[in-house]
Amino acid sequence: MKYVGIIGAGTMGIGIAQVAATNGCKVWVYDANAKQVETATVGLEKTLTKLVDKQKISAEKMTEILANISIATELKDFKDCELIIEAIIENKEIKTKVFTELENYVSESCVLSSNTSSISITSLGAELKKPERFIGIHFFNPAPLMPLVEVIPSLLTEKTLAEKIYNLMKEWGKTPVIAKDIPGFIVNRIARPYYGEALRIVEENIATPEQVDEAMKTLGNFKMGPFELMDLIGVDVNFAVTTTVYKDYFYDPKYKPSLLQQRMSEAKLHGRKTGKGFYDYSEGAEKPIPQKDDALYQQIFLRIISMLINEAVEAKRLGVANDEDIELAMQKGVNYPKGLLSWGKEIGYAKISETLQSLYEEYQEERYRQSPLLRKL
What is the pTM of this model? Predict the structure, then answer.
């Protein structure tokens, strides 16, 4: 697949375009806002210039990448594409409208895909005349740097297509994993407690955001604590994904969003992009120093890691992906220091089970129910 169309020229869209163009594909980029495509291509040129300055790529390679990218002014310009990746707003109706229009212009063999992080691939594909050519290809931000790509066939996707896309992503230098079409796929499903349980601990005044972050970094070797990470992702974006996953799992208490996160979203305290989130990013602002408490840190770490491991074990039980892909996804998609299944073995599954049982008895909430497989490991 050497002719690729990208719909959406935001950070993700132009990032995917860069990946495809770097790997020798001819790429067309379209955005409903024509000005956005110009802005994105200027931004890409600056990014590539920095890579040349740092000697990460040659000046010739930069010229080649830019020459491989063309601006599409309308969807009709995608008529020769073999693969189209949509990376626009997380809204099912808008995405569906784009795909149904696209079917009028592209060839019968053109593969259509979505970079959605939370909308059902089956529900998007079901609206098409040829749902068998539709698949999820979920990159992680920033696409040129993050190695993981989740490949998600729908219930209607042609059987061999997932493997074809998996192999293409390998050719593009990515680390692909194949996931079932369930809410959140692998990473966004399993990672929910990293944020959800951290928010819960702060909401209950058990610890401060900086204490939670410090505990996860010092005891778990996570590169970023949950609150630093939410500020980086965007508190509003993280809240939106949690809300979608919660709704799509028919309001399972395990995925219940946080009231604190909702209030912060409403107050536009979105993190780095607005200058203030759980931390203050304004000029001269000092990051609060956490009050160290070894026993509290141990309690925080064990509570959050137990919830994460339980989620990974449940994903294994449900066949969301194979063991290797579950481990790879969490390490390559969200930079976890270890795969959660092997981490569970290291801590001891009995210890994880005991921690969850204790939380369940304390709170009497379904949120803390254990995967039936956990007790058997």
Answer: 0.92
DSSP state of 55: T
CA distance 373 to 377: 7
DSSP state of 213: H
3 state DSSP class of 113: strand
d(C-alpha 15, C-alpha 19), whole Å: 6
Cis peptide before 142, with omega less than 30 degrees from 0?
A: yes
Q: Please state, as a whole number, how many other Cβ atoms lie within 10 Å of the Cβ of residue 255.
A: 23
Catalytic residue, candidates 150, 197, 214, 314? 150
> CB pairs under 8 A, 24+ apart, for 73-78?
73/30, 73/34, 74/30, 75/7, 75/30, 75/101, 75/102, 75/105, 76/105, 77/5, 77/28, 77/30, 78/5, 78/28, 78/30, 78/102, 78/105, 78/106, 78/110
Q: Which of 188, 238, 258, 310 is catalytic?
A: 188
138, 265, 306, 311: which is the annotated catalytic residue? 138
**Range 329-358 burial, b when 16+ CB lie within 10 A, else e:** bbbbbbebeebbbebbeeeebeebbebbee
* Phi-psi domain of 228 (left: phi exceeds 0; alpha: psi -120 through 50; beta: other): alpha
Tokens for 339? 């795969």
Token pair 């109706």: residue: 93
For tokens 């609060």, the residue is 288
Q: Is 132 a catalytic residue?
A: no
List 113, 114, 115, 117, catalytic entry: 117
Structure tokens at 144: 């040129």
- In the predicted model, is pLDDT for residue 79 greater than 90? yes
Q: Among this protein's residues, is 150 annotated catalytic?
A: yes
Q: How confident is the model over 317-365, as pLDDT tens digits?
A: 999 999 999 999 999 999 999 999 999 999 999 999 999 999 999 999 9
Is 270 one of the catalytic residues? no
Helical spans, DSSP H, in 23-175? 34-53, 59-67, 92-102, 121-125, 161-171
Establish whether 117 is a catalytic residue.
yes
Is 81 within 8 Å of 106 (Cβ atoms)? yes
Residue 62 to residue 48: CA distance in whole angstroms: 6
**Cα atoms found within 13 Å of the Cα of residue 137, Cβ hemisphere only:** 30
